C-alpha cells in the first residue's frame, strides 16, 4: 500500500476511534436537594467558580414564568463547595423582564449576563412580545462582593442574548434576532437567526458570524484550547437540537441535527469528556432534566433528575476530577397547600473509579 495512503487511513482510524470507541465513565448521582425557594417562580440556572468561591444565579419572579417587569436576577455564593449558599446580589431592570442569567469570568472580572424582554410598567400580553425590543444587560464584580449597576450591552438591541464563553482574549455570546429586524409577530421560530457576538471588554458587542440562519435558538459554546468550537443549539422549530462545530476564524460552520430536542442546553467539558444537558420530553412522564455524554456525534444519557413541568436550564461546576455539582430548576414539588412550586435544585455527580 502507498505509505501516504496508509498514513491517511491510520489517521482516520485514530480520529474515529477517539470520537466513537472511547467509553465514557460511569456516574453516580447523590445529595439531590432543593437549594432555593422564596415563594416566587425561580428558573434558568448557571454555576461558576470565581476567586475560590462558587456562584449560582437564576431568575426569580413573583408573577411567574412569562414576561413581567417584576422579575429579577439573584446571585448566591458558597464558600464550602456548594453545601451552603448565601445571597450576595439581586438586580432588576426597569420595565424589563430579566431572564436567562449566565456567568462569564473574563479579564479577571465576574460578569452576569441577562437577556431582557421589554415589558413596560405591567405584565406584557403574549401577543405583544417583540424580539426587536430585546436588549442585553450585565452586572459585574471584581471580588464577588461589590457589584455594578446593570449596564446596557452596546450592540445587543434587537438580540436575545444567551450563554457566554471566552477564548483568546475575546468574549462571545449567543445572540438571536429576526432577519433584517423585520417588523411582525413575536419573532421566535423558524425564521430566527443565531449569531456569534464578540467583545473585547464584555460590554460592547459586535457580530462575528452567523451560525444558524434559520431555526436559531438558545445555544451554548465550548472552546477547545486550540480554538475549535463545539456548540449545542436548541432548535427554534421545536425539533431535534443542533450539534454545531467550527474553528478559527469561524467562517465555516458544520451543523447537524441530534436525535432529540434539548431545551435550555448546556455543554461543558469534564476531564476529557463532554457533557450535554437540558430538557427532554418523555412518553408518559412529561419533560425531564437530563445529562448526557457526547460520544462522537451521539448522546448517551447518564442521569435523569427529579423534575417535571416547567424545568431544565442546568448549570455545571467541577469540584475535582471525580466530583461535580449540577444546578437546575423544576416545578415537580408542591407547597403545603398542594400548589406547584418552581424552585432551584442541586445534585452531586461522582465518577465511578
- The ordered string of helix (H) and strand (E) elements is HEEEEEEEEEEEEEEEEEEEEEEEE
Classification by helices and strands: mainly beta
- Share in β-strands: over 45%
Low-confidence runs of at least 5 consecutive residues: 1-21
Biggest sheet overview: 4 strands, antiparallel
Question: How many angstroms does the end-to-end distance come to?
Answer: 42 Å
Principal-axes geometry comes out as: globular
- Work out the number of β strands: 24
Summarize model confidence as the mean pLDDT: 92
Strand order of the largest sheet: 1-24-23-22
Count of helix runs? 1
In percent, how helical is the residue content? under 10%
Which value, in Å, is the CA radius of gyration? 20 Å
